[in-house]
Amino acid sequence: MARTSGLRILEETTLKSARLERLEQLAARIETTGDRSSLEVRTPITDEPIGSIPGCTANDVAVAVERARSAQTEWERVTVDERAAILERFGDLVLERREELLDVVQLETGKSRHHAVEEVLDVPLTCSYYAANGPSILADADRTGAVPLASDATVTYDPLGVVGVISPWNYPLTLAMTDAIPALLAGNAVVCKPDERTPFIALALADLLTEAGLPDDLFQIITGDGATVGPALIDEVDYVAFTGGTETGRTVAEQAGRNLIDCSLELGGKNPMLVLDDADPETAARGAVKGAFTNAGQLCLAPERIYVDERRYDEFLDAFVGATRRLEVGLEFDYGSDIGSLIDGDHLDSVREHVESAVANGASLLSGGRTRPDVGPFCYEPTILTDVDPDSRVACEETFGPVVSVHPVSGVDEAIERANDSEYGLNASVWTGDRERGRAVAREIDCGTVCINDPYTVGWAAMDAPMGGFGDSGLGRRHGPEGLQRYVDARTIATSRIGPMDAPPGVSPRWFARFMLGLTNVQRRLTRWLP
Ligand code: NDP
Q1: Pairing assessment for the beta strands 151-159 and 141-143 based on DSSP bridges
Q2: How far is it, in rounded angstroms, from Cα 325 to Cα 3?
Q3: Which of 355, 369, 405, 525 is the most exposed place for a label (fewest CB within 10 A)?
């Protein structure tokens, strides 16, 4: 395993001068209505401070939303095609400035560069998908009228107003933008509250949106402690798109419910991976490495429980353990290492506790299980456990780290049953040599996405398909038409060509009732028989 010191990296690069100066410029974007306390932002690479942000107050939030609301009234009059063109330009800029963005993501999160790249790729794809498909999804739609020929109905879609986006630290670039892009395209303004540990990448994106031509105040960042700024934001906006932990998600949903605004909640997962008897063990092992250890396992879609048909168990485990032991933990600002750091000391303690309590309860450690202070203060080795007690924390709760448990199962039925034995239902994967069999198994799994022969990318990156969770993994969907439709109010405009839908003058109510009953019968038949 690599022994690259994070401290040395910070000293050796030009980061301290040029990059930290850039962070200071970015922090200056945040507008407050008075002097505010300053929150220090530290890099997990060395646990040193890299900048500071204001701890905004409820008043700052109210003022930001007011400005956003005023900008939105103009923005909704801009054609969808013009909005789409600005977002496409923004996608281009993200690709053009990728090196700077990757540096900021790595600095804030400590993730490896090749995991950071997934974030940079995701945003332009989201822009292009909604720029290409948004205009038709938002176009007025003709629907069948109440009485064919005598009436019609058209549905129009209006933006909601101001959307609040509350995003977490693990994918700070992707998750600050993936919900904001369709919201803006639909004609809304967005006020985003990033996690206080990772504010700078959201600010860098706000800069690029301005450069792409987005009018002022339409996308704003407010910073500060989630428990203060989050509720203040939910009280001011017309919709909230939240990504984070399940318990915070419940409080967000409660508040949104009280305010009678809609919300989408992308929450945690305890994602199962099923390796069937006809799977290629080597391929499945490669998938397990990618799935379980991307972003050091701090990925809501990552598999944390692997159920392997007992006929493939030994081969799979050999391949998986071998490949995992070859992974290099490192903190370079290039593509040298496989896995970066965890986000901070509290999270490292929580991951370590999951592993240590599992081992104390009889689990076997086949790889990892150690911190790596020689690499960085919060680095932890990719870890594989077997013989895990089904009631231990690591078996039931989301670990959100580079830790996975592997379990033999007697066949596909047991694999499905154990996969579904969870309160969560975010993402699953099925590994098989027969894709049709994989699809049939997928239908039995209680998760919002089920990927076949890939751990998560094939589902997440299918921009045209919705993404979200069952059960404790959340509400609502991002991506696809559903990810845009959540941000509009549908209005039905119905027209009668024959005046009021009532008995015409001179026709008795009895005759009219008979006529209407006959007509209703014909209409029901037509509705059933005609496509
Ligand atoms: P949290 O729920 O603690 O935080 C998420 C965001 O919510 C942060 O910006 C946080 O602010 C803010 N927040 C905190 N308290 C409140 C509140 N009372 N009201 C409104 N907002 C609040 O989650 P984590 O940061 O710990 O993120 C990890 C979790 O997120 C994991 O469980 C993971 O599974 C889940 N997640 C889900 C994803 C998905 O797509 N389904 C993707 C990524 C993560 P601050 O931290 O600044 O105080």
Answers
A1: antiparallel
A2: 14
A3: 525
Listed by start position, the domains of the chain span 18-267, 271-466
Cβ–Cβ contacts within 10 Å for residue 389, how many? 16
Instruction: Mark whether 266 is an active-site residue.
Output: yes
Tokens of 486: 């959540």
Q: What's the alpha-carbon Rg for the chain, to the nearest Å?
A: 26
298 lines ligand 1 (CB under 6 A): no
CATH 3.40.309.10 matches 271-466:
yes
189's CB contacts (< 8 A; 6+ apart) are: 68, 69, 71, 72, 75, 161, 162, 163, 217, 218, 219, 220
Nearest CA-CA partner of 191 in 213, 228, 164, 153: 164
Topology of the domain covering 18-267: Aldehyde Dehydrogenase; Chain A, domain 1 (3.40.605)
**pLDDT mean by block of 10 residues, the chain; 531 residues:** 48 62 89 89 94 95 98 98 98 96 94 95 97 97 91 97 98 97 98 97 97 98 96 98 98 98 97 98 98 98 98 98 97 91 98 97 97 97 96 93 98 98 97 98 98 98 97 97 98 96 92 93 85 63
Q: Is 244 in the pocket of ligand 1 (CB under 6 A)?
A: yes
Instruction: Report H helices in 35-145.
Output: 58-75, 80-96, 98-109, 113-138
Q: Which ligand 1 atom sits closest to the C-alpha of 299?
A: 43
